[in-house]
Amino acid sequence: MAQSAISVDAHHEHQHDTFKLLGFWIFLVTDCIIFACLFAVYAVLRTHTDGDLTGRELFEVKGFTAETFILLASSFTSGLASLAMHKGSKKQLLGWLAVTVLLGLSFVGLEITEFANMASEGAKITTNGFLSSFFTLVGTHGLHVSFGLIWMIGVMVQIGRHDIDSLTKEKVTIVGLYWHFLDVVWIFIFTVVYLLGVM
Amino acid sequence: MGSHENHGSAKTYILGFLFSLLLTAIPLWLVIQHVMNKTALTVSILLIAVLQLIIQFFFFMHIREGEKPRFHVMALVLGAVMVFTIVAGSIWIMTFNSQVH
Amino acid sequence: MGEKAKGFFVTGDPLIYGADVSIIITLLGILIFLTYFKKWGWLWREWLTTVDHKKIGIMYLVSSLLMLFRGGVDALLMRMQLAMPNTHFLQSQHYNEIFTTHGTIMILFMAMPFMFALFNIVIPLQIGARDVAYPFLNAMSFWLFFFGALLFNLSFVIGGSPDAGWLSYPPLSELAGSPGPGQNFYIWGIQISGIGSLATGINFLVTILKMRAPGMKLMQMPLFTWSVLSSCITIIFAFPVLTVTLALLFVDRFFGAHIFTATGGGNPMMYVNLIWMWGHPEVYIVVLPAFGIYSEIVSTFSKKKIFGYKSMVFSMMIISVLGYFTWVHHFFTMGAGADVNTFFAITTMAIGIPTGVKIFNWLFTMFRGRITMTQPMLWTLAFIPCFLVGGATGVMLAAAPADYQYHNSYFLIAHFHQTLIGGVVFGYLAGLYYWWPKMFGFKLNDRIGKWAFWTWNIGFYVCFMPQYALGFMGMTRRVYTYGWDMGWAPYNMVSTVGAFLMGIGFVFQVWQILYSIKHGERDLTGDPWNGRTLEWSILSPAPHYNFAHLPAVKSDDAWWDMKNHRYGAAVQDNIKEYTPIHMPKNSGIPFLMSACWFVAGFGLTFEWIWMGVAGLAGVGICLLARSFQRNTDYYIPVDEIKRTEASLGRVV
Ligand code: HEM
Ligand SMILES: [Cu+2]
Asked: Is residue C422 a contact partner of residue C390, using CB atoms and an 8 Å limit?
């Protein structure tokens, strides 16, 4: 419809960009609140082990340290991706996104192994209040990461099809923001759950 | 469109990454080596986490970008207050509760 | 107990068989109507896929009135049961189910969508915008609400209703206390619609911040817009808490975790703490827009600028933030310790101050104004004394030591109904009468409206004043029957009579609407009340692009200013060339995706994992499909704008 009119409102479209970004920031704030509640529950229940194993006995320093550095690196590479995008290099952009996805996948893999190991030691979500809150907090973060991975792959496919244009640019920016945000949340999981746990 | 905006440079990303690595390694080392007593340790690693959050916000997420007024910054600040209220408030309220029992 | 054994369909109760039959007849009726008149395509194109905020608003409105009906029937059933001592009209189990569904429906499926109806219908028009910031998301919010409410209401005939109270405290709401699917219906019904509410909060926040007409500064926004802004701020901080709380309850029930359980290291009080972190702000979420409505109405019908505009804005913003710091007053009796209780008692009382400021501002606005007694104004005037009493009894409850006396008594029931009905429902009804002509192009009949008004109001006092007395006499909430020896009988009888009066008031309103559709006074000017804000500068009902020219705003009360100084839309001959208008395309995805949520919610309610997974997969596919769409908007050509404007009677 009315193809000719497209140029009339270029300004309008630009406005829409910043709308999306503001909306997404606000969404991130609401997601912060979600994690805040999960942290609050964890803080209240962390001593409720009901006589079972505590965090100190369950958490493995090597495992969670590896997870932390991998996620940190992926946050960095997703930043490099957005840098490549602003330079206009599609190949680099797709490359860095691919690296980010691989790092993300290995993070999720490590987390699943960690959960499985804990479960085989008898530490399950059903065991006690402490573990219930642990698995919901860390698991919710893991679900967020998995969701982000699917999303990022979807964005990569779209870049493949349509190159870097205003729409795909916006998508890369937003998914990148999401990815950095998940890294920030993980810093607190790393500190509050794991470091305080093994202390 | 929007090319005049500052999207960060390779330098800021690398700098931010180095800071983050450092701010992850330090608390890890502090905890493994048990350099302080428990309360001091808890407080310092929490502070370091907050520091790292700030680093990521500035170096990776570019919160200074965007047109004025920066509503997203206001939302984040208010969000931080609410996050603090939820976590600290719950701990405050619930510990009294468990002492009573 | 033992509900699983009862089977899939709820059986054994004449009320429910009645409901079954009427549901089937209604559904058949709708199907036959749509097929016979070949309306399926129309339904899909005009309503199910629409992203037009005005149509979405109307759908919210219709749903919320239906829910008001169901919640009202619940209320009348309870009042019938309580009218006399030792009644056996309802069993205790049934009574529990009814107060649970009544409370949940009234707050989440009546007040919230009614509020969103007014957001949708008014906000873009009032700030001079052509749509909301995210029209697609807006449609999604509506359909999520719709399917959430549908799921919740389904529990009446399938599986069994929830019965653990409107906030479903554990351990009662845990698997051991409520093994049937009823509690899962509660969780998923609210969860699905709650995601929609959260999205609406974000949507309108961005709309108000970013899409105001050129020139409109924040401090020139109409007060209703401000009230929506403050309400949205509260939504984005409160609703995520609800989401988490219900999700955790589900994790307990579904995976056998021990977060809120009484055994295994769980902590049921943590649930109470969390749910009120949402629940208290929730009352401000619904009451703030009502305050905004009163402000618009008082100023319009006193023909004066609102008194103390700035203090109005500040008090609303203060309420929206401070409202987040009072939640413990709902469980003072939990024993959290003296300093916790003191802190929260003080914050609670502090909220009274900005509220008081607002009431004085309304009174000062009316003072020496030339007041016209229209229906919106009547409801506004009725609100003020009602809310004063509700506020006073609220402060009585906020005094923590005294609360040990009133907690969970009928005093509390009377208090919160006074604020919820007198504050929220009256406000939304006032708004409905006020903006009705803008929505549909005709006014609602005055004579029937007065009848409705007086029966509602008299009924209200007759119903709830005796309940304060009952509270002092020791009647506790949620009791399903009592003996003659308590001396409560006369008061309860009076209260029931009042409840039925309100029911009659509602019937009057339905009649009023039906009557006015045929005989209502048409509004040809677009400005039937001599209004002050931009929504009255366009014709009623608004064309689907709202403003052919975006208005240029120079002052507060923008339309009033235009009329008095003869500029903008107030001057017909001054119209510039039209330019093509950029609009979003309709989309079926919001409807389909919410339907998938419904499937997922239904599956998880019955713990049919295959169905839950299938539904969630559908949600994921819809999300991806949307992400891959590129041509989501179009331009309305100038010819079409000219034609529309001419057909609406505006000289081109
Ligand atoms: C139309 C007139 C109404 C009447 C006659 C009425 C009556 C009642 C009655 C009899 C109860 C149960 C008291 C008990 O046994 O504990 C109740 C509870 C409740 N009502 Fe209403 N109500 C009305 C309107 C509303 C409205 C408009 C709202 C909200 C916007 C509302 C919200 C609630 C809530 C939240 C509860 C508590 C439910 C629970 O205990 O879990 N009511 N109402
Ligand atoms: Cu409250």
From this structure: yes
Measure Cα distances from C479 to B90, C85, C86, C93, C408 in Å.
31, 11, 11, 11, 11
Closest CA to C628 of A36, A132, A151, A95: A151
Contact C10, C16 (CB under 8 A): yes
Q: What letter would DSSP give residue C583?
A: E
Q: What angle do CA B14, B16, B19 make, to 5 degrees?
A: 110
Answer whether C463 contacts ligand 1 (Cβ < 6 A).
yes
Tell me the C-alpha distance between C221 and C127, whole Å.
7
Query: What is the count of structural domains for chain B?
Result: 2
Residues B4 and B50 in one domain: yes
Instruction: List, in order, residues 6 or more apart from A78 with CB less than 8 Å away.
Output: A96, A97, A100, A175, A176, A179, A180
B 58-97 residues inside an 8 A Cβ radius of C: 71, 75, 78-79, 82, 85-86, 89-90, 92-94, 96-97
SS3 C530: coil
- Give the model confidence (pLDDT) of B32-73 as tens digits: 988 888 899 999 999 999 999 999 999 998 888 777 778 999
pLDDT in tens, C41-65: 889 999 999 999 999 999 999 999 9
CA torsion, ordered C34, C35, C41, C46, to nearest 10 deg: -10
For domain A2-198, say whether CATH 1.10.10.10 is its number.
Answer: no
CA-derived radius of gyration, chain B: 18
Model's pTM, two decimal places? 0.94
Nearest Cα neighbor of C326 from C266, C372, C267, C278 is C278
Kindly list the residues from chain B whose CB atom is less than 8 angstroms away from the CB atom of residue C209.
Answer: 71
CB-based contact A187:B49 (threshold 8 Å): yes
Other Cβ atoms less than 10 A from the Cβ of A25: the count is 24
pLDDT beneath 70: ranges in chain A? 1-18
| Spatial separation of the C-alpha atoms in residues B46 and B50, rounded to whole Å | 6
DSSP result, B51-95: HHHHHIIIIIS-TT-SSSS-HHHHHHHHHHHHHHHHHHHHHHHHH
Same domain, B48 and B73: no
Residue type, C421: I
Which of A24, A132, A167 to mutate: most C Cβ within 10 Å?
Answer: A132
Mind listing the pLDDT tens digit for each residue in C553-574?
988 899 999 988 888 777 765 5
Instruction: Map C255-309 to HEC letters.
Output: HCCCCCCCCCCCCHHHHHHHHHHHHHHHHHHHHHHHHHHHHHHHHHHHCCCCCCH
Task: Round to the nearest angstrom and report the end-to-end CA distance of chain C.
Answer: 69
Residues B79 and B61 in one domain: no
Biggest CA–CA distance in chain B, Å, is: 62
CA-proximal residue: ligand 1, atom 4 (nearest) = C75
Q: Are residues B35 and B57 in the same domain?
A: yes
Taking the CA of residue B93 and the nearest CA in chain A, the distance in Å comes to 10
Give the mutation candidate from A19, A22, A24, A30 for the C interface (greatest C CB count, under 10 A): A30
Please indicate, yes or no, whether residues B49 and B1 belong to a single structural domain of this protein.
yes
Q: How long a stretch of residues is chain B? A: 101
Q: What is the DSSP letter of C425?
A: I
What is the ipTM metric for this complex? 0.93
Supply C459's token pair.
């009924």
Same domain, B56 and B11: yes
Per-residue pLDDT reduced to its tens digit, C183-213: 999 999 999 999 999 999 999 999 999 999 9
Contacts of B92 (CB under 8 A, 6+ apart): C340
Tell me the two tokens of residue C376: 């919106």
- Which residues form the domain of B89? 67-101
DSSP E strands, C223-335? none
Does B48 lie in the same domain as B9? yes
- Cα distances (angstroms) measured from residue C584 to each of C135, C207, C210: 7, 15, 17
Q: Three-state SS for B65?
A: coil
Round the average pLDDT of chain C to a whole number and report it.
91
User: Within this chain, do residues B40 and B85 fall inside the same structural domain, yes or no?
Assistant: no
